[in-house]
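Researcher: Hi, I'm a grad student and pretty new to this. My advisor asked me to get structures for two proteins we've been looking at. I'm not sure of the right format, so I'll just paste the first sequence and hope you can take it from there.
Model: That works fine. Here's the first sequence with its structure tokens right after it:
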Amino acid sequence: MEHDLQALVAFFVLPVFAFANAGISFSGLGAAQVFHPVPMGIALGRSLRRCGTLWHWFYHESVYQFSGFRGHRYQTDF
């Protein structure tokens, strides 16, 4: 049951509580303001940035793993 609620909590409940604790009011907020190009662009940009960061990490980790290069990241005695 907890696993099923994870997406709901991560994408709805947690942001609502974060905005409420920050003192941001949603009164008078309608669909026109939510779906305006500026908030939609911010949401899209943040989503793409998160995906880009994951792909960047995955690429570099796979290069390190498959090339056999361990470099200074894995050395503990300098």
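Researcher: Oh nice, that was easy. Here's the second one.
Model: And its structure:
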Amino acid sequence: MKKGLLCFLILFTSMGLRSQNQITGVLSPPEEFKWLIAYRLIPGSQRYVADTQVNDGSFVLSLPKGAPAGTYRLVYAVPQEEFYVDVFYNGKENIELHFDLQDGSDFVVSEENRTWADYLEAMAEVEKAMAAVPRDIAPGEWQAILQRQQDVQEGFLERSAGLMVRELIMANKPFVPKEPLGLKDYFVQKKKGFLDSVPVGSSLLQTSGLLKNKVLAHVYTDHPEQLEGGMPAEAQMQLLVDQAQEKLTQTPQKYQLDVLFDVWNIAQNNGLHQLTDHVATKYLQKLATDLGDTEMAHFIEAERTLRLGNKAPDMAWQGPDGTQNLWEMEGAANYVLVFWSSGCSHCLKELPLLHEKVGQLPNTKVIAVGLEEDEVPWRSVTEEMPLFAHALSLGKWDSELAKTYDIRQTPTYFVLDAEKRFVHKPQDYGGVLRFFSVDNE
């Protein structure tokens, strides 16, 4: 009786151990890593799974029993959206990887992840060759490159039989024209068939990043105009966004918001203001509102308001001669707005330095806006900087001016021209001086 019970317990224990898989690895350089947090990605979001300490660069992360197959994100620093490693877990295999901050990931154990990594590397080599072809490439040479791409695809479809990542490889099937095409015609036809045979509703496709990358490539790359060294008109890129969003309606709204925000962000960073406004007004604002994401909605609107070239929102404050307004200020070629706080150590270091240099800023006035909870400490500090115009905005982060100018840290600087239009957004005090070509000594 006791022997039977003992055998049962051993069997039960061994089954339990086998059902709990691990992700292990070595992280380099070891001094840069202290902790790992694992999340399971779901379309447009993520869910906490487990965490573990990193000891001298090594870690062992045990996944919960029955952890579902899918994409898992290993976060090793903040901000989390920048410092992570994504892995595919099929619910059965252990995963071992080496990760280097310079060289990226190398999967030692995991057929799923090694196959996917090898596939991406092989495809990248072909795409590199495609990008390097001359505009007048001979039709036979171009067809040879396309055949090479097709050979890579078919080889990895065979290798990935029975694997989870086969779904991704199938979804990434290269465009194969029905008849030989020249270079320009190839890209024209490829655009027309965007996502036609891709299972857009696949959760794995969404969480892998593959679908998002396809949308971004559709909007920003592989344009026939780029063969001539140019870019398509923004109106054409707006149509491509509309085409992509029509496909994305098959995905959850959170996922749509995530993808379209990246489309918007790239446009914003590249000064494509028509495209930025199109994405924001037609899609992002509504999605953010529907999902109750008020922070996202405010951020998008603030970025539009504070765009370079736009007139700064007006502000009023009580000066020594009564009420003053930003828009009514005259007599300067430039105005510097600096949002600060008397409780901010960086501000108390940078503002006095800027005050010392204010006489060297050519034909410039400085308006220092204090974001404060209490007037008393603010007034004490401002008395030491009489060359600034000082405005007080009580309520600190919740004050009207902090919200209008989307202030997320202090000090924050803006440079305006004589018409009060934004011309520069320095990152720090040194950036202000560099804009005016003033020596920071």
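Researcher: Is there anything I should tell my advisor about the second?
Model: You could mention this: DSSP finds 15 helices and 15 strands in the chain.
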